Amino acid sequence: MNQQIIKLSGAEEQLKALLLAQGKDEAATQFAANGLPTRRIEAYHYTDLKTLLRDVPSALAQANDGNKAARSEFAGTARVEIVNGELAGDFDLEGVSVATSANAASGDDSVVLISEALVGDTVEIKVSGELDQVLHIDRIIDGDAAINADKVTVEVADGCKVTLLETFNGSDAAHLGLATTEISLGEGAQVVHLQLDGNSNETRHFANNRYSLAADSLLRTFVQHTETPLSRTVVTADFNGGGAHADFAGLNLLAGKQHADITLNVNHLVPNTTSTEMFKNVVHDGAKAVFQGKIVVAKDAQKTDAQMMSQGLILSERGEVLVKPELEIFADDVICAHGATCGELDENSLFYLMSRGIPRKEAKAMLIRAFLAEMFEPIEVEAVVKQLEARVDSWLDDREEA
Amino acid sequence: MTTPILEIKDLHVKVEEEDKEILKGVNLTLPAGEVHAIMGRNGSGKSTLSYVLAGKDGYEVTQGEILFNGKDLLEMEADERAAAGLFLAFQYPIEIPGVATMTFLKAALNAQRKSRGEEELKIPEFMKMVKEASAKLEIKQDMLKRPLNVGFSGGEKKRAEILQMALMQPSLCVLDETDSGLDIDALKIVSEGVNHLRAANRSMLVITHYQRLLNYIVPDRVHVFSDGRIVESGDRELALELESKGYSSFDGHAA
């Protein structure tokens, strides 16, 4: 245990004060001992929060009617709205129950620690049927700039099936969002979990997504960062039962001075489980995208098959894509692979399109859309694909220099 | 006398950031309605000429000019050249995963129309055009459903190039080694496709190693290309002479 007293930054002092004000003395002490993670902590090597998170709002988001915040609307979905950490409105859908309970979880990682400590009530969702309708959970931060910690747990019973669409939205202010999502899949459960970030372009967004997979369950996930100046999503999955399969995907689509980090930890803990990982990073201007993907195959986890791919597209001289794939394999009868590519748009492809009369800017846009197409293709919720494509279009439109 | 479709005057070209000159004074006049062949050995600069005509980045014109329908071609970007009626059939058409062939064809045709101030094609009209043109080239509909050139055989790629050419109705067609990688049957289909496009207001520049292609696409003039320039020009007989004597009798280099 490191007993050295570190000098806290202004932001760290503020976070500590907030923890104390919430009566979280233990968490405050633990946080003060470590501060925000720096590059010396391996998991944060490319996302040094002491440097990147220099100012934080002073107050927690207070319960309100959420009127100032933008919403994501998806026709035909069943909607659960969480405003400033509190469940808003009634919810009635067969096969789904929604309740709240006090959160008591903690963590060693400083971001997890403050996220868990500042959560008031956890929103607990239980799925006990085969849902045809997409369950849309809109997590909203409303009001003036504030720190908002919210938590959603979803328990999908044995043999049950659900598509969860989570969106992050908020009022136009420099919030700090700390979102925790835990999804447990029962035996043979099938879950699609899509997480779209639609926060204001001043909000700093941190998400922790944790999954546990029982035998024969099937999971498909997608996370995306496009809007906020600083974001980090940590995806952690534990395979606890044989025959389970998961596909993990994610996208950082960045410009300006944005910094976004997707960190993935996939733990194959038992025999006969499989996974694929597909992550893409597109950067323009001086943006920085980080992908860290770690696949662990435990000693007993024979017959694991895991295929990880990360691809980067750098559209400017100053843009950076930082990729760290890792395989930790303790079993001997497994198939694991990882690949990483990174580059500019292909000059020959660009010339080919232009030689057919397509102007440079449009040709580049076509190639960028093509780069992303294979990632959107498996997302079966048409409204989500449309929104993602629209986001890509507006992102492309915003790029002045073609 | 009417303006030639293409006039190349004393064209000198080097690769950007390199000192090596590749084209060393090319002179060529291509009148409307004529088909000219450029024959030369590997590395003589034939493909560079085709890329410079189409506007590929990475080349620097150090001297000379190119007039396309009387206008300065070198002032235009690649897409503007296409919209103005220049078409390059690639020796190696580029595979572009993630771009559906039909989407690409529609985007290209509409971009050209837009730059000429014409209205966008209506979808049924576009579909009909593609269907008719592809039938002539024996292109199956399922090929058009695939991503652009992805998984196409060599012959399919070349037929797809000619399909694009037929749809775009250019005034200048530059065919870069269109015969390479084609078997005799495919060569016939492609050549028929090209011959079908011969017209009084359209010119073609056919670049090839072999005289074989010229049995099918019969040129009005043949130019022998060597070491970055045209060393001999003549009628169709020149191609036959070249075939029997070899390039060395024209450029003095060993074969």
From TrEMBL, chain A:
It comes from the Bacteria. Residues 142-371 form the SUF system FeS cluster assembly SufBD core domain. Coiled coil: none annotated. It holds the Pfam family SUFBD_core. InterPro entries: Fe-S_cluster_assembly_SufBD (IPR055346), SUF_FeS_clus_asmbl_SufBD_core (IPR000825), SUF_FeS_clus_asmbl_SufBD_sf (IPR037284), SUF_FeS_clus_asmbl_SufD (IPR011542). NCBIfam families: sufD. This is Fe-S cluster assembly protein SufD. It comes from Maritalea porphyrae. The lineage of its organism: Bacteria, Pseudomonadati, Pseudomonadota, Alphaproteobacteria, Hyphomicrobiales. The gene is sufD.
